[in-house]
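Obj.: predict assembly geometry.
Materials: sequence records (below).
Method: joint structure prediction, all chains together.
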Amino acid sequence: DQQVKQNSPSLSVQEGRISILNCDYTNSMFDYFLWYKKYPAEGPTFLISISSIKDKNEDGRFTVFLNKSAKHLSLHIVPSQPGDSAVYFCAAVSNTGNQFYFGTGTSLTVIP
Amino acid sequence: NAGVMQNPRHLVRRRGQEARLRCSPMKGHSHVYWYRQLPEEGLKFMVYLQKENIIDESGMPKERFSAEFPKEGPSILRIQQVVRGDSAAYFCASSRVLTPEQYFGPGTRLTVT
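Observations (raw structure tokens):
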């Protein structure tokens, strides 16, 4: 039962352009969402998060948007850089527990 | 400021042996989580521990798997009588009290031959 879904397994973007990674969830009890970046043979690295009381959170080149009614969030990276090439996971957690639910990841390739 | 540490990074076991995976959380973090990533899949929650307590083990297989986080020392994920299907990357994460952000270690890649 995949409660957090990333339907695009891969994405390629030209350097300097915008990368948009999408994530959908099914559980309306989720109230906190996070994005992680993962390089091969390393653990996931926390990137940015958003609480359900907000619809946007920005940190440098990274912006996360949350659409609660659609149960959808997205991560925008602009401008994209070759060093951004990695697998990106979205995760969700509910206020009734500490368990993170992860999506299956989107592999981003930024082409120089 | 050291991050989450896991060892060993790679572990090879024959079927039927025991595997012990260790995790030292970040300084100041009292919550530890274990996740498993099977090939071509995302991370799946296994267990959430605080010092000397298992808080949520709903993602842990009922048999052969156990976890602890003693008062002193690292958290241990123990897999008894390993089978080929246990081959995966096992990640540990830690967090502070009352903050949702979890910080991950580099993982232990378990291979069962």
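Conclusions so far: Chain A is about 0% helix and 55% strand.
To do: check interface contacts against the pulldown list.
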